[in-house]
Amino acid sequence: MDSVVGYIAGLQETLDRLPLALIEEVIAILHESRLEGRQVFIMGNGGSASTASHFVCDLAKNTRHNGRPAFRVLGLTDNMAVLSAYANDEGYENVFAEQLANFVRPGDVVIGISTSGNSPNVLRAIELANQVGAKTIGFTGFDGGRLGRIVALNVQVPNNCIEQIEDVHLILEHLICTALRQRLQYA
Asked: Which pTM was predicted?
């Protein structure tokens, strides 16, 4: 029972320490990108890949409102044939950057999710996005890693437990999508 109580207490403490102003900035950037018809790209590895896919799904479907623009969102983790082809031929560290190179334009939004902030394939894609003038956002944990230093906005979950960081990333995804849906309903 102590491990259950401790886990929940750790989550509650982490939620209380989230950078709310940065989360509001992410919401504003995504809202603007929707209204301007910009593309949004999201990526991650492992559990963060699942969160990236979930984020894509929720942005695409759960933020729609009749008569208002929908999100143009693409998950770079979701096409296994493309992902494995690039991994095989170009190296796993290039799977996201190579996909992104085909589509990203200045002003688009590129979101990298990495608990450590040090995933080489996410870093390469963010570097490419920065080079073309896309808006870059990171969702990290621990000390933010290199990703936290190279994105325009880093939402760093103040925690050192991978599972809790991933939990909070999913909460953030849901919170952001709820806020974006409400912005259109009440605008």
From this structure: 0.97
